[in-house]
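Design job #97: recover the sequence.
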């Protein structure tokens, strides 16, 4: 009788839960516009916390390393655990990050602007130079020569008009929009400043947050499931931190090597080309080609010989990165084959754009790991059932 009452109670509870979920779903569908407005408002309010969380996560490995070194240094000097190590590691990490970003901006941005301006000025001359080279290649072929002449004449006529009527007005609109949209600029600066403050608090309380999350996890799911969830969270953290920070370090080194080579060989637009190669190298699989092609075309406008030299150098550099430098920095943190890496980049890139291409591989690696464990457990369960 008692068992029947318990079954009846759980049945009623399930029916009530299904009815409540149905009502909630109807409310969400009927009030979708209002929900979108509410989510947009919450996004604006929580944006500084999201920015702070991203900054804290990127700085966490360096902060942990500095705190460990400071504690080890204190113990060597016989002072035991240094209570100031945590605060000092946060300060040093933030200062180092600000210095690196400032130096990069001061060194790179002015040169980038000069390179872009020089490209706009040299485009007509580059078109004419390309025309002469193509005509020499065509030789006595009158049909091909006429086609090349008409094509280059069309480009020479339309290029100044395009620069005058499209590029310059858009630049003026962009500059005017930036200068008039004071509210947007203030919002970005506000989110960034508050995000830095939030990141400091998150770095300072990261151990407390981890302990609270672990306690909540145990209270909701029990010991067995909590330990499984924690193992997966640790794996996700290992994949994300290892992949993202590793890609950043790897791409920075590749950019520096490319800059050194282009400066030594006198390659045109050395800084611009190196920035393109370094930044696009963050994207796995497609990144090296995305940076290589426009860089080659930029150099080709000035010097075909140096463009070919750069192309050979970039191919060798990417081989060095893929076979030596990348594996040493990244290892095999994702555990994915080349096919699944390509699948993750195309899928997440198509859904979320450039950001999806950056984080798609580690996100899919975590999904793949969970699916693999579930499949293995399912296979083991059915095997045990067949034997029993």
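Job complete. Output follows.
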């Amino acid at each position: 009788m008692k068992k029947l009452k318990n079954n009846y109670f759980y049945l009623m509870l399930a029916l009530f839960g299904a009815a409540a979920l149905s009502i909630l779903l109807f409310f969400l569908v009927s009030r979708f516009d209002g929900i979108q407005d509410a989510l947009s408002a919450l996004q604006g309010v929580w944006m500084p916390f999201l920015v702070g969380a991203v900054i804290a996560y990127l700085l966490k490995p360096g902060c942990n390393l500095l705190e460990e070194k400071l504690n080890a240094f204190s113990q060597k000097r016989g002072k035991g655990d240094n209570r100031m190590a945590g605060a000092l590691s946060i300060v040093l990490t933030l200062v180092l990050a600000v210095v690196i970003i400032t130096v990069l901006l001061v060194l790179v941005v002015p040169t980038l602007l000069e390179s872009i301006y020089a490209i706009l000025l040299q485009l007509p001359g580059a078109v004419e130079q390309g025309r002469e080279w193509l005509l020499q290649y065509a030789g006595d072929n009158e049909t091909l020569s006429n086609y090349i002449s008409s094509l280059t004449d069309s480009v020479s006529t339309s290029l100044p008009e395009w620069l005058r009527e499209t590029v310059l007005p858009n630049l003026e609109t962009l500059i005017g929009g930036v200068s008039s949209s004071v509210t947007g600029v203030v919002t970005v600066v506000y989110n960034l400043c508050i995000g830095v403050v939030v990141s400091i608090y998150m770095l300072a309380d990261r151990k407390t947050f981890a302990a609270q999350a672990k306690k909540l996890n145990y209270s909701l799911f029990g010991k067995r499931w909590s330990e499984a969830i924690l193992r997966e969270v640790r794996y996700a953290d290992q994949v994300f931190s290892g992949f993202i920070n590793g890609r950043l370090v790897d791409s920075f080194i590749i950019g520096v090597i490319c800059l050194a080579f282009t400066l030594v060989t006198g390659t045109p637009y050395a800084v611009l080309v190196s920035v393109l190669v370094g930044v696009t190298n963050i994207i796995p699989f497609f990144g090296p080609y995305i940076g290589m092609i426009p860089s080659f075309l930029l150099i080709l406008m000035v010097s075909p010989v140096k463009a070919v030299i750069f192309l050979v150098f970039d191919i060798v550099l990417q081989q060095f990165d893929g076979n030596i430098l990348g594996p040493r920095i990244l290892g095999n943190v994702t555990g994915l084959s080349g096919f699944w890496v390509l699948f993750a980049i195309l899928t997440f890139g198509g859904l979320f754009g450039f950001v999806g291409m950056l984080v798609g591989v580690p996100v899919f690696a975590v999904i793949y790991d969970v699916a693999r464990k579930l499949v293995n457990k399912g296979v083991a369960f059915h095997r045990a059932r067949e034997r029993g």
